[in-house]
Amino acid sequence: MLLGFVILYLVVSIGIGVYAATKVHNAKDYIAAGRSLPIYIVIAMVFATWFGAETVLGIPATFLEEDLGGLISDPFGASLCLVLFGLFFARKLYRMNLLTIGDFYRQRYDRKVEVVTGIAIALSYLGWVSAQVTALGLVFNVLSDGVITQQQGILIGAAVVLMYTLYGGMWSVALTTFFQMIIIVIGLIYIATLLSDMTGGVAPVVEHAANNAKFHFWPEMNAVAMLAFLSGLLTMGFGSIPQQDVFQRANSAKNEHVAVWGTVMGGVAYFLFAAVPLFMAYSANLIDPALASKWLADDSQKLLPELIKAHLPLFAQVIFYGALLSVIMSTASGTLLAPSVTISENVIKDFITRRRHLPDHQLLVITRWVVAIFTVLVTLYALWALDQETGIHQMVENAYKVTLVLAFVPLVAGLYWKPATTRGAYWAIALGLATWLPMEFWLPEGEGFVPPQFAGFLMAILGMLIGSLTSRPAQHSRHGHHAPQADQPQA
What is the pLDDT of residue 29? Predict the structure, then answer.
C-alpha cells in the first residue's frame, strides 16, 4: 500500500511536468521560464532545489558519524553560496540579460573561456544529480523491502525525473518545485512533531547530542586542520556560485529585486530548515538504539527511512516518503536541466551556428536531446559511485571542486576587477587546473598540507593577476565575438 501511494505521487508529479510543457513555446521559455516568475516561486525553487537528498539522508548520516564540523560544506557552505550570490552576483548578472551563466564568460572574455568553463560547470553536475538518483534508488529499495535493488531503483528514478523534465524545462521545474516545497515543509514538520512526541520533546535529543560531542564545530588549532576546514567551506560556498542552477533561478525572476531577495531568502530558509532532518535522524538514538546501531554500522543513510518505516503509522509513512521524494525530485529536475542547458547553449550551439543560423525551435530540440543524454551519463555515474560505496554527501561535496578551480575566479574578476583580461582568464584556468588535477589524482588523500582544490583556487587567483597585469594595452580591448571591452565590465 505504501509503495502504491508513492507511485501515485510520482504520477502526479509527472502530470504537473506535462502540464508545464504547454507553457513552453521557445528556448527562452524552456531555459528561463520567460523571466516572469514572482518571488514566492523563486524562493521555492531555490529552497527546493538545494534541499536535496544530501540534506535529508546525506547530511544527517555525516552528522551521526562525525559531528557538526563535518557539515561545514553543507549546509554551511551551501547557504553561504546562496546568500553571496543573491547579494553580490544576482543583480549584475540579471541586468546583462543572459540566457546561461556561460554566456557571461563569452561576453566578458571570449569563446574559448566560455567553452572551458561551460564544460567544467556541466561536469560538476555529474556528482550532484547522481546523488539524487542514488537516493531515489535507496528509497525504492527500502520501500520494497529489498525486492527492488538499489541499482534498479536508480534506473527507475532517473527515468521518472527525465519524463517530467524533458518537455517542460524550467516551467516544469518551477511548477513542480513549488508543489514539492509545500509537501517538504509540511511533511517534515509533521514527522518531526511525531518523533518529538516519542523522545519527550526536542530538549532530550539536543542534550543527548551535546553529551556525545556532536556539536563540536571548530577545527583543531593547527594549520592543516584549519586549511581543510576553510577549504570545505569555500568549495561549496564559492564553487557553487558559478553554477547554472542558481543563476537560472535568479534569472527566471520577473525583475532584479526578486532575483536578489528570492535567492537570499531561499538560502536562509534552506539553512534553517536543514536542522529538521538532523533532529529526525538523531532521535533514533533515543527511540530505537538497536536500530540506530545497526544502520550506523551498515549504511547510516538508511537510518532515517528505516526509523520511519519501523515506528510510525502508515499515514505518517506516506507523508514522509512523499516529502522525501519531493526533496529528491525537485533537486534532480533542476540540476538535470542546468548542465544540459549549459552544454547546448555554450558548447554545442556555436559549432552549428558557424555554418548556418540556428532557429529557436532547433535549439530547443538540441537542449532536450542533451537532457536525455546527460541523464544516461548521470545514471551510469550513479551506478559506478554505488559500486565504489561513495556516500551521497561526499558525492555532492566533490561536485564543486572543478568550478571552484576553473570558473569562480574569472567570474568574480570579470564582474568586479576592471583590469581583468582574457589572458588573465586563460592563466587563471591553466594554473588552477595544472595545480589541482595532479594533487587530486596522485596525492594520497589527507597527506597534502593544502587540499587540492584550495591550492588550485589560490593558483587561479595568481594566474588572473599575472595574466591580466602582463597583458599589453591592446589586449585589454581585444576579445572574442560579442564581447564588451575588458576594462568596462558589465554592470
Answer: 64
Instruction: Report which of 396, 372, 370, 368 is spatially closest to residue 382, judged by C-alpha positions.
Output: 396
Level-2 CATH architecture, domain 2-21+36-98+114-357+365-400: Up-down Bundle (1.20)
pLDDT for 433: 95
How far apart (Å, rounded) are the C-alpha atoms in residues 59 and 397?
Answer: 11
Which residue did the predictor score with more confidence, 412 or 163? 412
**Given phi > 0 = left and psi -120 to 50 = alpha, else beta, which region is 52?**
beta
Report residue 359 as a C-alpha cell. Answer: 532557429
3-class DSSP state of 109: coil
State the amino acid at position 244 in one-letter form: Q
Which residues 6+ apart lie within 8 Å of 299 measured at CB?
Answer: none
Mean pLDDT of the chain: 84
Tally of CB atoms within 10 A around 303: 26
Position 459 pLDDT exceeds 70: yes
Pair 51, 131: CB distance under 8 Å: no
What nine digits make up the cell of 354?
558557424
pLDDT at 360: 67
Integer Cα distance of 282 and 278 in angstroms = 6
Q: How many CA atoms lie within 13 A of 296 on its CB side?
A: 16
Q: Shortest CA distance to 5 belongs to which of 350, 403, 320, 275?
A: 320
Spatial separation of the C-alpha atoms in residues 280 and 404, rounded to whole Å:
32
- The size of the chain, in residues, is 491
Residue 178 is classified by DSSP as H
pLDDT above 70 coverage of the chain, percent: 86
pLDDT digits (tens, 9 = 90+) for 366-376: 888 888 898 99
d(CA 92, CA 81): 16
- Closest C-alpha among 45, 53, 49, 51 to residue 395: 53
The answer to whether 368 touches 113, Cβ cutoff 8 Å, is: no
- Model confidence, pTM: 0.83
